[in-house]
């Protein structure tokens, strides 16, 4: 769960989100080193006299500033591709949950069980119990097992929505007429909050998601 003035990500609750956070730190360090080098060069150019202007036309310098960025891009691309393949990997799911986006609520169906479906609406602020979170609580939470592979089948009945739970690293568009799939596995029990992250209309900000594991 996010807290006020938070600058980083929410705590990871799935292996995929942990990998995404590691990749974020890895890439951010590369960006920091590049920015520091550029700032250092700019400061040198502004504070020192250029006594060797021919250096900038040397073949060796051009070779370095061509090969070095290519190496940096490879260092970023390889971990990124690895995570992409991990996110698309299809394993035998222990449970399949189908969710449909509506204006403006979610409906869920446990496809492994007959006639087990329900709608999930945001709890109005005047009906919140003490300690519950405004604009994030729902009347019917999704209950899922922990440390088991879960398959989400996501679609929409009307307009574009996006089923997003940041702690799990899951963000999949709900598109009318198309059935998208996402898989995840939680590493610890808890209550995880998400929202529709597609601007889907007037009540876009009133489509929370609550998972209880």
UniProtKB/TrEMBL annotation:
Keywords: Copper, Electron transport, Magnesium, Membrane, Metal-binding, Mitochondrion, Mitochondrion inner membrane, Respiratory chain, Translocase, Transmembrane, Transmembrane helix, Transport. It comes from the Eukaryota. Its cofactor is Cu cation. Pfam families: COX2, COX2_TM. GO terms for molecular function: copper ion binding; cytochrome-c oxidase activity; oxidoreductase activity. It is found in: Mitochondrion inner membrane. This is Cytochrome c oxidase subunit 2. It comes from Microcebus lehilahytsara.
């Amino acid at each position: 769960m996010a807290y006020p003035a938070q600058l980083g990500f929410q705590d990871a609750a799935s292996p995929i989100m942990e990998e995404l956070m590691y990749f974020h730190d890895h890439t951010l360090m590369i960006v920091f080193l590049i920015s520091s080098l550029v700032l250092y060069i700019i400061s040198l150019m502004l504070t020192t006299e250029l006594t060797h202007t021919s250096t900038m036309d040397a073949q060796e310098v051009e070779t370095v500033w061509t090969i070095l960025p290519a190496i940096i891009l490879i260092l970023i691309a390889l971990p990124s591709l690895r995570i992409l393949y991990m996110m698309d990997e299809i394993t035998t799911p222990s449970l399949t949950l189908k969710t449909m986006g509506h204006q403006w609520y979610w409906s869920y169906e446990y496809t492994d069980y007959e006639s087990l479906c329900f709608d999930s609406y945001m709890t109005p602020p005047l009906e919140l119990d003490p300690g519950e979170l405004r604009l994030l609580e729902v009347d019917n939470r999704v209950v899922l097992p922990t440390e088991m592979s879960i398959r989400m089948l996501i679609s929409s009945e009307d307009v574009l929505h996006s089923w997003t739970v940041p702690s799990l690293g899951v963000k999949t568009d709900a598109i009318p007429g198309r059935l998208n799939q996402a898989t995840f596995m939680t590493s610890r029990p808890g209550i995880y909050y998400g929202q529709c992250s597609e601007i889907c209309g007037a009540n876009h900000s009133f489509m929370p998601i609550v998972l209880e594991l």
